[in-house]
Amino acid sequence: MSSPMVLSRRAMVLGALSVPSLAYAQSGFDGWVASFKSRARSRGISQRTIDAAFANVRYNAEVVERDRNQAEFRREIWDYLDLVVSESRVTNGRRAFRDNRRLLAEIEDRYGVPAAIVCAIWGMESAYGARRGDIPVIEALATLAYDGRRGRFFEQQLMAALRILEAGHVRQRDFVGSWAGAMGHTQFIPTSFEAYGVDFRGDGWRDIWSDDPTDALASTAAYLARFNWRRGMPWGVEVRLPSTFNFAQAGRSTMRMPSEWAQQGVVGVDGRAVPDYGSAGLLLPAGARGVALMTFANFRTIERYNASEAYVIGVGHLADRIAGGGPFVASWPRGDRGLTSAEAAELQRRLNAAGFNAGSVDGRPGPQTRSALRAWQSSVGLSADGRPTLHMLERLR
């Protein structure tokens, strides 16, 4: 059953649409569903499963609104970490870790993925099972497939969701998740569940939806193991850079052994060389004035779960905190925000006008823009970290 808050939000979203436009969307959606049902039958889904799955499905305007909603300002890394690695999430994570210590140890022993990493993903995705989503998966995926912005992807997920129902892994009334169809304690999308979900206890079902998190946590570890998690290697380590550091060497594409970085003065925050866990790159998520991270191959493995550097840092840092570690030692440049698209386009124009080739003026600062910014920063005696910020734009002005 939907909470009063969810119902209130849904009413506001529906209220923003005129009755004719909502009726038009519902009519088009009904036609699309009829066509999809035919495709599902042709791919072996039983009529019984199809009828049950679509019995109460309606066009969900809230799902479309959330898919299309794009924030004007990008959330800065420190604001993001304040949210996802809050003290309450750390405290709750340590409690969840203690309460599930035996299970997490079993999962770590089988798959080689540290228990704290699995627990951190659990915390990031559903607040340790407290917020698993309450939107019917079939309705969400059907709405997004019909809407068309990523129609092919969501139709694939919808077909997989029907196969999950057909196989009996979950009852229709329990088949709920996020607005985008991610499911369970660790928010698997249907195709990922099919490919990587595990039945950890061998009871015949892969159950990531119930209050018992066993299969969900094991599935997460199995997923990371499948994408080459390396035992004994950290995701990343906070490091200290020398005052003479050449910021052109920053970035995950420049890989060296930690002992080689140490020869250049890049050491752990304790002042000692980082052990040679493997080849590593340097990531400066807030540029020269923020936390510096030495990242290893396991960083890329977590990135397979969610292709966002901020997400991976959140998971890794939360895992370290759950395991007893403290906050990052370095501070963040909290007064130095990034750029809106319009401001980024202005930065690109000004770099080009100053003779530094920032590439196309598209408001999306990629490698070429960052390279041009580094060159300009060097020319005026600034730390050449290539981070496009409002402060840099103001200097260019």
Tag the structure with descriptive keywords.
single chain; 397 residues; alpha+beta; five-stranded antiparallel sheet; two-stranded antiparallel sheet; 18 helices
Describe the structure in your own words:
A five-stranded antiparallel beta sheet has the order 4-6-7-3-5. It has a two-stranded antiparallel ribbon with strand order 1-2. The longest helix is centred in the first third of the chain and has 24 residues, at 19-42. The model is unreliable at 1-16 (pLDDT under 50). α5 (77-84) packs across α15 (309-322) and α16 packs parallel to α18 (390-396). The protein is of the alpha+beta class and 397 residues long. The chain has 18 helices and seven strands. The chain is globular, with a radius of gyration of 24 Å.
Q: How much is the radius of gyration in Å?
A: 24 Å
Which spans have pLDDT < 50 for at least 5 consecutive residues? 1-16
Calculate the mean pLDDT score and round it: 91
Q: How many helices does DSSP assign?
A: 18
General shape: globular
Strands in their spatial order, largest beta sheet: 4-6-7-3-5
Query: Terminal Cα separation, in Å?
Result: 54 Å
Q: Main β-sheet: number of strands, strand sense, barrel status?
A: 5 strands, antiparallel
What oligomeric arrangement do these chains adopt?
A: single chain
Q: How does the helix and strand content classify structurally?
A: alpha+beta
The helix content is 40-55%
Q: How many beta-strand segments? A: 7
